[in-house]
Amino acid sequence: MLSHRKILHLSLGWLTVLGGIGCTALVLFAVGKTPILEARLAPIPAQQRIPWHFITQEDIENGVTVPADTHVAFHLPDSFVTIDRRVLFGRQGEKVRYWGYCLPDNYDPEVAKRRAGLPGLLFLSEAEREIREQQELPPEKRFSVRYPPTRREDLDKQKRKPPLIRHQFDTFEQSQLCYIMTASSLPMGLDSDNDGLNTKFEQQLGTHPDIADSDGDGLLDGIEHFYGSKPFAHHLSGERAGLNPLSRDTDVDGIIDGVEDKNRDGKLDDDETDPRKKDTDRDGLCDGLCITRIGRATKLLLGEDTNLNGKLDQNETDPLKEDSNGDGVTDFQAYFNCEAGLQEYCLDTN
What we know:
By secondary structure, the chain is α+β, with helices and mostly antiparallel strands. Among the domains are: 48-140 and 158-188, no CATH class; 222-277, no CATH class; 289-345, no CATH class. The chain is 24% helix and 14% strand. It has helices at 4-32, 44-48, 57-62, 85-88, 109-113, 126-136, 199-205, 221-225, 257-260, 331-339, and strands at 52-55, 64-66, 71-75, 82-84, 98-102, 121-124, 171-173, 177-182, 186-188, 289-294, 297-302. The chain has a five-stranded mixed sheet. The longest helix has 29 residues, at 4-32. It starts with a helix and ends in an 11-residue tail after the last helix. Residues 17-35 and 38-43 have low confidence and may be disordered.
């Protein structure tokens, strides 16, 4: 029969074992909850549980999706000279965190083992750079009655300058062997037609990967898709930002997109009508021609640029001004007054 002392000793022993198991479970749970992108900071056993994936040269030439939450190694093809990082990864860096590095040509594994840090040149997405800069900011000074500021500069929070985040290159070269980790999947591929969109991205959009201007409107597919000030807002995002690279006339105003964007730079300039809007000056008349319904009848309305050439010609109202001749009567009012037989309004530009 066991004595009370032995029973107490055994009980304490089992409690110790159970406590150790519980702590181990908590550690494993915490590691399991570690964001995958931060897995490089996790213990080695946790890193080893993250899957690996290899992308071949042929995969990249055909277009491939970089999986999220995965160690990805990729070998760039020999069929190009250089490609911009943003194009290679589908111009998703503004909203997707990813980071990686490429091995140098003279990479020696034995030398790499003996030095600290990454074995190659580092690249970061814009979103990843922003996060790292915020993480590396020095802490704000906290003041109190007991610890008042000693300098005027201490009160200025803008004095906290973000550190320089190590980011070494944005241009990839042929045959490089690289590594990437991304928080979301990325469309990856080459840009054989030099329109700013890689092969995989064009496959997703439905544009032609070997034709720079799929709809023939004079604008490159990449310029149309990312038209506007927001680099990642486009015609599929629900935001009024991008143009449709599969439609010659995105806003259906009768003027093709390449005529409205006169210098074809993908930005709305002061002397250009907006290829995303039928009525740039909001005067009620379309920039070009519009089909509208009046009662039960469908009618073609002559807009402002009636010959659809993107220029202000004689007997045309200005699509950039609500009242082209400054007589106090809007172009819209003058148009319908003329339609009603009031001849004095028919030459609104004279």
